[in-house]
Amino acid sequence: MSTVDIPAQTLPASELARLDARFPARDVAVGGGAVVSVRECGQGPVIVCLHGIGSGAASWLDTAALLAPQACLIAWDAPGYGRSTPLASAAPTAADYAARLEEMLDALSIRSCVLVGHSLGAIVAASAARSESSASARIRRLVLVSPAIGYGAAARIDARAKVRAERLATLDDLGIAGMAAKRAGRLVSDGASEHARQWVRWNMARLNDHGYRQAVELLCNADLLADLPPPMPVRVACGALDVVTPPTACEEVARRCGVPLELVDDAGHAGYVEQPQAVAALLRESLAG
């Protein structure tokens, strides 16, 4: 572990108070002693949101607040994130995460929802929609935002080894706080507000070492393009300025789904943090469609 002194990633007290008041966390028991930590805001049709590898449920606060009059937005902390129980395997698959998602939907008695997956969350969302379990029948529409395609395809074997080595080396060398300081800036565009920058840094700084290592294995072993669900209502969006999953890569996901790619202007990878109004409008439309 690096001995470099990394400053703590903090949010203004007013933002933490807003998070606790508008989007509080609670633990949902899902059996076998496991829990999934969720945040919930609003009333009405349910939107379930799955975050990416460097984030958490709290990152959806601004989007949830904008949708509160029309929808109930529920965001999970993925297994191994926040207070959510990690999965048993050191290298869990997309199907393992999707099974935990189904347990959460059961525990919350959610019978119908729009399922939103951002980045790595898109891999889990697509797996849930593809599964033959009851989870897929509950998904009215699938929304993939800046989807990560993973490195599981045979053609990406060299990139897979490089990504795994680089991500784990950064974690080992800098720790979670150092990683947040170094990598969080890539999640937003150069023109992002300080508000957006604070939120992506704070969320990444709250990662858990074990859960992040499991998520790295998911990223390296998954193949979204081979795991897309059969024809169903789908929307695919991407930040126009995304450098992590750029529009050219997201365009291929949209093409495979048979839909146009929808660009979020003036947004990087964490588009729903940087431009929550635009993403909330997209999700509001997804409820109606």
Describe the structure.
This protein is of the alpha/beta class and 289 residues long. The chain has eleven helices and eight strands. Strands 1-2-4-3-5-6-7-8 form an eight-stranded mixed beta sheet. Strand 1 (25-31) and strand 2 (34-41) form a beta hairpin. Helix 2 crosses helix 11 (276-288), helix 6 (157-183) packs across helix 7 and helix 6 (157-183) packs antiparallel against helix 8. The protein is globular.
List the helices and strands and how they pair.
Layout: H1 13-22, E1 25-31, E2 34-41, E3 46-50, H2 61-67, E4 72-76, H3 94-107, E5 113-118, H4 120-130, H5 134-137, E6 139-145, H6 157-183, H7 194-205, H8 209-221, E7 234-239, H9 247-257, E8 261-264, H10 271-274, H11 276-288
Parallel strand pairs: 3-4, 3-5, 5-6, 6-7, 7-8
Antiparallel strand pairs: 1-2, 2-4
Helix pairs in contact: 2-11, 3-4, 6-7, 6-8
